[in-house]
Amino acid sequence: MREADPGLFGPDSVTWQMHADPMMWIAGVRALYFQALHPRAVRGVIQNSDFRRDAWGRLMRTASFVGTTTYGTTEAAEKAGARVRTIHRHLTATDPDTGERYSVDEPDLLLWVHCAEIDSYLHVARRSGFRLTAAQADRYVAEHRTSARLVGLEPAEVPGNQAELAAYFEKVRPELAAGPEAREVDDFLQRPPTPALLVPARAALWRRVANLAYASLPSYAHDLYGRPAPAPAVVTRRLRATGTALRCVPARVRWQLPPKHILRAMARLGPGTRPAPYKVGRWAAILD
């Protein structure tokens, strides 16, 4: 009998366990705030999509890409990466100040988007109470050289641990700014288009999610946006409280949301591959 395909990461990866955590949704919003601070990168998004009109569709497509590459078969993940590379290959953006026209798949831009995303996932998960040792966090960063390859980057040129990731952000900081496009993303995340009946829910629920994601950014990002955030200790308490509350929702209930990547992976590989944070703890002694 042919052995089931575990995909690019597999059940023994940190990625397999961590990406099943419900705080990844807040981490995704943080990544949007962070990515928008690179003027050339965010310009490529603004100029090539009507993200205000199809923002939720875009968000779900991104979530589906992450789900497919994490929990799908190797073939499905490779096809998803090929689709992304093909789309990016045909897109360009224009610098309004210089008139320069450039491709959105420039390696520097792809690297920024990748690093901001991986940093956001790791930062929010750990700060909200998902327990990872330093070695496991390094392993997570290294694992995502694979996802970097899928979007067109050379894995060897992508940070492979936390120290390299921190060095990358230190190097790129002079290029960051909260330009008009970043302000547009910020405004959208604070007040996304919502049917009239759901406006109260937007104020009560979504605004809290967006504010928490924003607050979890590094302090220099708050300085660039020019909008203050609570003290770091307060942000950490709120992230932990939110993580605790969301993790009380049974995983099987959360995983029923479309497109059910995790449930399909468990059906393919067996119930023993169920993602669970406690499994990461078993590996601590080996990794450290």
Task: Detail the topology: elements first, then pairings.
Layout: H1 14-18, H2 24-35, H3 39-48, H4 55-71, H5 74-89, E1 92-94, E2 101-103, H6 107-127, H7 134-143, H8 145-150, H9 162-172, H10 180-190, H11 199-215, H12 219-225, H13 232-247, H14 251-254, H15 261-269, H16 277-282, H17 284-287
Antiparallel strand pairs: 1-2
Helix pairs in contact: 2-6, 2-11, 4-5, 4-15
Describe the sheet with the most strands.
Answer: 2 strands, antiparallel
- Per DSSP, the total helix count is 17
Give helix and strand order, one letter per element, not per position: HHHHHEEHHHHHHHHHHHH
Q: What structural class do the secondary elements suggest?
A: mainly alpha
Mean pLDDT figure? 92
**Radius of gyration over C-alpha positions, nearest whole angstrom:** 19 Å
